[in-house]
């Protein structure tokens, strides 16, 4: 005689299939977070108009990938400001005022870096033998001014200051942001003032990190310098400045205050400058507000 107690039990196949304990439902797929620092979906184009280059679809992003400056159309002067054949030297504040008086504005550090990145991509092409082929001569002339605008170097004033006391990069600063060598011209009143945070120091010895002068390549591997560079340049991929430096036959470097104190102890507001000087392509955040040199204006195009 069979002793199997399950002999006369009928299996409910549908019930087994739908049993949540035996066949639990699949977990819902988690939403895919949006990618940060993605390249803009619409390519930037460059065309020529008289004394300007027209750049369309230009965008600056912060370290978290958020857009903080964008232009459907921007007109970039083909030359720095000159008096005849001689360049005009400005402090950053003076350059801002001069631009505003001509219906222009001085670009922020972030905007300048994005402009140069686009010019590089559209002016020249690197060949397999290490040489460069010119794609657009007009664009190349403007690009090359960031290596040498006629004075033997390419430094240009930027509409950005660095407040080391409050650890903020300020794009399009106002009068009050110029602790020295400013004025009362109500600068950048029609532009969005953008504050982006950074850190001067993190951790304690022996794992203490501080902002220090270094090559951009090394800086992008350094937690504090890397974030500073992203907030400073507004580039989705700041490493593009490394091959631009190589094209200029310079090494891209990042500079911070060293005198009278190092960046970690600095409480001053310093000016931003961008371009080649000496043997490097400088992302410069250490100059005093009274330093003076060349400037370039831009203006909005079609709305």
Please give a structural write-up.
This protein has 303 residues and is α+β, with helices and mostly antiparallel strands. It has one domain (45-300). 20% of the residues lie in helices and 27% in strands. The strands form 5 sheets. Strands 10-9-8-15-16-14-13 form a 7-stranded mixed beta sheet, sandwiched between helices. It has a 4-stranded antiparallel beta sheet with strand order 1-2-3-17, with helices on one face. It has a two-stranded antiparallel ribbon with strand order 4-5. The radius of gyration is 27 Å and the shape is globular. The chain starts with 12 loop residues before the first helix and ends with a strand. The model is unreliable at 1-9 and 26-40 (pLDDT under 50).
Shape designation: globular
Q: What order do the SSEs take from the amino end to the carboxyl end, as H and E?
A: HEEEEEHHEEHEEEEEEHHHEEEE
Biggest sheet strand order reads 10-9-8-15-16-14-13
Q: Number of DSSP helices? A: 7
Helix content: 10-25%
Strand content: 25-35%
Largest sheet: 7 strands, mixed
Round the mean pLDDT to the nearest integer and report it: 89
Number of strands: 17
Number of structural units classed as domains: 1
């Amino acid at each position: 005689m069979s002793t199997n107690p399950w002999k006369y039990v009928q299996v409910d196949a549908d019930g087994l299939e739908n049993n949540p304990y035996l066949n639990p439902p699949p977990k819902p797929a988690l939403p895919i977070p949006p990618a940060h620092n993605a390249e803009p979906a619409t390519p930037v184009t460059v065309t020529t108009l008289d004394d300007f280059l027209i750049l369309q679809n230009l965008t600056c992003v912060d370290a978290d990938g958020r857009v903080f400056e964008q232009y459907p159309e921007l007109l970039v002067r083909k030359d720095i400001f000159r008096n005849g054949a001689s360049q005009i030297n400005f402090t950053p504040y003076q350059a801002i005022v001069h631009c505003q008086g001509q219906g222009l504005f001085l670009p922020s550090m972030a905007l300048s870096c994005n402009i140069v990145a686009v010019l590089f991509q559209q002016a020249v092409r690197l060949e397999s033998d290490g040489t460069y082929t010119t794609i657009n001569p007009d664009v190349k002339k403007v690009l090359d001014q960031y290596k040498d605008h006629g004075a033997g170097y390419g430094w240009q004033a930027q509409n950005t200051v660095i407040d080391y006391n409050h650890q903020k990069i300020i794009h399009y600063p106002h009068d009050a942001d110029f602790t020295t060598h400013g004025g009362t011209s109500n600068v950048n009143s029609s532009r969005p003032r953008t504050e982006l945070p950074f850190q001067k120091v993190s951790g304690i010895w022996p794992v203490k990190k501080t902002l220090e002068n270094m090559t951009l390549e090394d800086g992008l591997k350094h937690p504090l310098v890397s974030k500073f560079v992203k907030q400073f340049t507004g580039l989705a991929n700041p490493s593009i400045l490394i091959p631009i430096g190589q094209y200029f036959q310079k090494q891209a470097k990042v500079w911070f205050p060293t005198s009278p104190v190092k960046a970690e102890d600095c409480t001053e507001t310093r000016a931003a400058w961008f371009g080649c000087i000496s043997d490097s392509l400088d992302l410069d955040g250490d100059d005093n507000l009274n330093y003076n040199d060349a400037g370039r204006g831009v203006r909005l195009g079609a709305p």
